[in-house]
Amino acid sequence: MKITNKLTRFIPAMIAAALLSFGASQATYAAKWDASMTPDEVEATLDKKFAEGHYSPKGADSCLMCHRKSEKVMDLFKGVHGAIDSSKSPMAGLQCESCHGPMGKHNKGGKEPMIDFGPTSSLSAEKQNSVCLSCHQDDKRMSWNGGHHDNADVACASCHSVHTAKDPVLSKSTEMEVCTSCHTKQKADMHKRSSHPMKWDQMVCSDCHNPHGSVSDADLVKPSVNETCYSCHAEKRGPKLWEHAPVTEDCVACHNPHGSVNEGMLKTRAPQLCQQCHSSAHSGQALFGNTAQGASVTDNAMTGGRSCLNCHNQIHGSNHPSGKLFQR
Amino acid sequence: MKFNLNLVTLALIANASVFVPNIVLADGYNLQQANTSKVQLDKWECKRCDVPTGVSGTVGAGIGYNDSDDIRSANAFAAENEFAGKVDADVNYISKSGYRASVEAQDLGMENGRLEVNTGKVAQYNFNLNYRQIATYKTDSAMTPYQGVGGGDLTLPSNWQTAGSSQEMSQLYASLTPQELSLKRKRAGLGLSYQGEELWSAYIKYQREDKTGLKSASGSFFNQSMMLAEPVDHTTDNLEAGIKLKGDNWFTALNYSGSSFKNQYSQLTFDNAFNPTFGAQTRGTMALDPDNEAHTVSLLGQYHLGKTVMSGRVHYGQMTQDQAFVTSGYGYQLPAESLDAQVDMSGANLKVVSRLNRTVRVNASYDYSDRDNQTEIEQWTQISIDSTSGKVAYNTPYDITTHRGKLGADFRISRGMKLDAGYDYRRDERSYQDRETTDENTLWTKFHISAFNNWDMWIKGSYGERDGSQYQASQWTSSESNELLRKYNLADRKRSMVEARVSHTPIDALTIDLGARYALDDYNDTQIGLTESTDLSYDINASYLITDDMMVNAFYNRQNIDSDQSGSTNFGAANWFSQIEDQVDVVGAGFSYNNLLENKLRLGVDYTYSDSSSNTQVTQGISGDYGDYFAKVHNVNVYGQYQATDKMALRLDYKMENYQDNDPGNSIAPDGIWNVVSFGSNSHDYTAHLVMLSMSYKL
């Protein structure tokens, strides 16, 4: 039995494809021990090894006796996790075994399991992540536990790599591909008639969301939806003299920030959108558009042009003394 | 080679004696719990640790030819002109002493260019410089008779003849000039972070953004309106700073975030193109977005107690605005020269996650947030620009307080089988609105199975009900509103959602992924307003590694969003109904072939097509529709990359965009509606091409 999911299987392949390297494509072989042990046995062995603490006699030098031939292994030293001059790097501590656990008898033929990460690891995401989280504890990751990706059993190594000069997921040009490989609805959204410019990587998911979780709704980077929007749309912040209640309360009352069939990412177009909340003699009229009786949607300013906004232009609020009706 | 031992390891060594070998089975492999009693670190020399020093990476440059007759294509190509050039770089430097620097430039010189420069010592300090540009383009043919476009004073030509309708404006067509509606953001920032030897670290970041361009606006007098090009010249400065403290099982952070927004144009004045009506006004002035500031301080913390993690945040912020009021053409006494507006934003959050045993983990959270608008309520005289505007009005500074509670648990029933369930509660308290309080209770669950070989699947469902205090339509809004109206953000609502996804990997090289989602919002107590909306979507994705060098992927997504609403023409029960049907199809495919011509050539093609359409129907005895509102876009990118020498690679990209959209309500001549002077039809129909030749050089 092999536990994999789409994310762990495909992201490295996608990243490899997205990077324009000419290197050989990554082969994904399961670890040696997976052939003879079930995931439960592997985990039990790793637990036992971790508790026993039989670390290698010479640290990284012991490991590299065999593994130095692997380019992937040696690439660790190109990145920050391989820095040997930092007191906070794993290489200043238990070296390779900081992350991969005590060597034990692994050096005798490589059949004894080590903690391994990424697409082919049979170890649960929670156990893999316990290694990373022992150092990576800060305000940007404080909501990982019980957060969206944690609950979905996403391993840190599903998105990140450390045996590299530069972690590809941190590049804005690959980020969208990684996120949308699971978030397919959002992938479709950004191709709609209007959306934030994510289709062309001008904006990326992490501009608004924290993939490691946050204490805000939808893992937003700011305390609320509106404050997240204000971080780029500061002009909407006001506070203005005449506020439009749903605007001050929640931008997503009218907009879908991921994309919409309507211009301006509006959930519905005017006048219908406005008529969902306004029903006076003026705003409650039945506005038919094109009819068999010969009327046209372009006949009048209630349905044609910018519809309600032809007059109520200041729909996000007005700071004009006479702006109560959002006309000034 | 000599090493500094990190703090964690030192602590471990110091505490090693308390570990009893072979007994403690940890719940994970947290380094703090590692049993290091047997490690002899003095023998760990790391002779084979080979840290490459010097400069590595690639630099590149490209030149492109852009063939387009519609500026809208610049959204896709990031090129406004016929020729475009760019610089790319991905350069790293590591010195022998451990000093590192990196330069990343992507499409620098294009309209979406980025640059990121970092330099410092790992885990000590880092200095960052960054630049980023975001540009969005609507049209280059917004037709306007106004002069002075780009500024805050729009005037009509001296020979302009006002008239009662746009068709009668004799100088309209002779005065029209095309304008480009586009917005460009240029962001530059710098930051410094520092990590202390011991527990603490700190950072400071500053960013300035300049946003310039033109956007659509409308200026109106009574029932007559002109579309206007509103100047955008905004400058926003952001400053973020914080200090973090960290221990073995806790950390805390104090952060400050400040933002100052400045608008070059505080008002937009425009000539009346029509014969003056109410108030005999020949010029109008609207207030543009006022300068404002926002400051937030937050304190966060987390504590690990065994298998329990507690985290919390409190924050307090202020948004203020004190720009002098627009008085041009106003003429009444003002209660103050500026609003001196202030909104206090505060919040508190506490979350606890605890693993009870290998099977069960529980979580609970509470979240409080408050928007308290402190702005004074005053009396404001409204000028007569229409027949319904009142003489005097009072501002209604809105307050809203939200409480949210969540309880949840996840159960690992067996390896590869997991059940999540939870209960969410939300209460909103509002001022000056039709309903003071709304309460929402939601139950949700998700079941995930990955226990079967090559299959991964989950199903998720939720059901929530929202109700609240008595709904008093029109208490604060307008006495003219229908009392059966229920605004959808305040109305009673039953919300249900079900979503399922299956991923199958029949062979290692092939993955097929299928998903579907259905959501229903039933506004069960609404007679006037939005009564129901449904959202159905499904998608299929496939990815196949044909050989080690050949990969193909494809996806398809369909979404239908249908909404029903009703209205009344006589202040009574609903007597007209409208249906809005939105449909989106997105199709995409990609193919890449690597290592051709003795591993020197890589070829690929990516294609996407999307078709967004929307149909609105209104019925009251007779029935009408809003025409064919759609946008269809094909995008193709064909590329080939050739490794000419060991160091140098050449790449050729061909990009094509075929775009077509229509907005029937806006497909009008500038005088198409008698009481509107419009920008004219701004539908698009174009095919644009970009060819780019680039080279990259490996350092």
TrEMBL record, chain A:
Gene3D superfamilies: Flavocytochrome C3, Chain A
PANTHER family from the UniProt entry: DISSIMILATORY SULFITE REDUCTASE SIRA, SURFACE LOCALIZED DECAHEME CYTOCHROME C LIPOPROTEIN
InterPro entries, A to Z: Cytochrom_c_NrfB-like_dom, Decahaem_cyt-c_DmsE, Multihaem_cyt_sf, Multiheme_Cytochr_ET, Paired_CXXCH_1
The protein's name in its UniProt record: Cystathionine beta-synthase
Signal peptide extent: 1-30
Key words, A-Z: Signal
Taxonomic lineage: Bacteria, Pseudomonadati, Pseudomonadota, Gammaproteobacteria, Alteromonadales
Native species: Shewanella algidipiscicola
Pfam families: Cytochrom_c_NrfB-like, Paired_CXXCH_1
Superkingdom field: Bacteria
Domain (Doubled CXXCH motif): residue spans on this chain: 197-237, 244-281
Annotated Cytochrome c-type protein NrfB-like domain residues: 96-172
TrEMBL record, chain B:
Keywords: Cell outer membrane, Membrane, Signal
Pfam families: MtrB_PioB
Coiled coil stretches, renumbered: none
Compartment(s) of residence: Cell outer membrane
Location (main, coarse): membrane
InterPro entries in UniProt: Beta-barrel_TonB_sf, Decahaem-assoc_OM_MtrB/PioB
Leader sequence residues: 1-26
The protein, known as: Membrane protein
Organism: Shewanella algidipiscicola
